[in-house]
Queue: 2 jobs
Job 1
Amino acid sequence: MELLKKGCAGSQVSRLQELLKKKGYPVGVDGLFGEQTRIAVKMFQEKSGLSQDGIVGRGTWSALTGERPAEHNQKQSSQPASLDFAGTAKLLEVDEAAVRAVCEVESGGRTGFQKDGRPMILFEGHIFWKELSKRGIDPQKYQGEYADVLFRKWDRSKYLGGEKEHDRLNRAMLINEDAALCSASWGMFQIMGFNHKLCGYETVKDYVEAIKAGPNNHLVSFARFLKSTGLDKPLRELNWRAFASGYNGPGYEQNNYHTKLQQAYEKYKLKNDQK
């Protein structure tokens, strides 16, 4: 079972809510771990003699189900096959192979986490410039000292990859935390932080916490993002150019993004057909 807390979403949250509702706690079943669910969890924890932190971990799951759930490990011990790709595809009314294809191109088909347990990210210094400006902060004031994370135009040479991207993010957060979090792409589907509302989260911090909490939240955020932007339609129609343009930007052809998507889709489609 995944560690669940406020801000999480998905099928595991729905199961949690169903269990709480069966036990008589006042909670709706909508798959969204909001304040109502957190309060219900705390009430159950109090009655069960558990720590009342509103977080559903191993002990709370055990008390709710009477079972001993497997410990959730974010350090990539679970493979994408164990994730709810099928449920996400059904929600979007698209082919499951298409969802897996986007995951393949964006994160190599992994669960969206590094080996150290932190989400996969890529920090964009040119976006950080814009995010600071939107907040009334003059980027030029910091450009000299923070030239590695703050620049006016996109510069591929600034990428360091892997764990070092978190080092870049942490440096940027010294200037402004929210602007920095908005300037990184996150997790399995590499959705930018500034898209947090399109993913269903009021603040970028809520979005990041959900991404950190477990890989199925990446799938939920992806589904919400596609529905919010209308990108579910070209994915449903397997219109790779239209999807690539909307998801990756107008420069998608430079990296053959649409071609990579199509090739990944055909690979997963073939695997599914052979089952």
Job 2
Amino acid sequence: MEKYRAIPQGYMTAGEVSKKMNVSVRTLQHYDKESLLSPSAFSDGGRRLYTDKDIIKLHQIISLKHLGFSLADIKNRLIPLDTPADVAQVLTEQANMLRKKIADLSESLSELEVLQTEVLKMQSVDFKKYADIIVNLEMKNDFYWLIKHFDSETLEHIRSRFDKESGLAFLEKFLQLQNRAIRLQDEGVLAQSPEGLQFAKVYWDMILEFTNGDTTMLPKLMQMGENDEFNQEWRQKQAQANVFIEPALDAYFSHLGVNPFQEGAT
């Protein structure tokens, strides 16, 4: 009984804190050694004694640890808990970090589910394509699904020609020209008109930028564009654009006196 009378009122032993907070006594000792959580007092017998304030601090440490912070990072993040404002600040910071963690985990889960869907659609094991899909998902590229339709040679070409920034810039240019073609068609602009020829030149320059001038890639791109497995919305929009793009390119090539599509097919 003398042992328990030695514990002043309002204090808890390491064993009691261990049970209350579901951490081991050894962990409490380690936190003390690392100057993260020192006991508020010691009993006459040398036992570590903790207060309710220490429990709040311990909760802060455990929460930050669960969020992936190292003990060194946690030590730098701990602030005094002397006023209600201090405690509120700690709880606010932890809540914000937890929200971010939840958002990150939710995004990771969504990416995994999307990748799972793409893997089943591919019906083959291709880890390079898997990696490319993951990278494009992280880039927030809504057209990540295109990757599974490229053959290995074309994908290698894309990897060598574009990085994340230039790849997204190129895709944005393509989408802008696609929308422009639909708008010109709706406005009744003739494909062989100066405006139509100028559009065709810009569109053709974009294709040359993609292929790096390699016309042997053109038949593959044409075949890929006719793929029935493409996203339905993508196919419909591209079909709308092609109503203007195809005759505009024909008029442009006729004006130049060349047909690179036929040359690339031979």
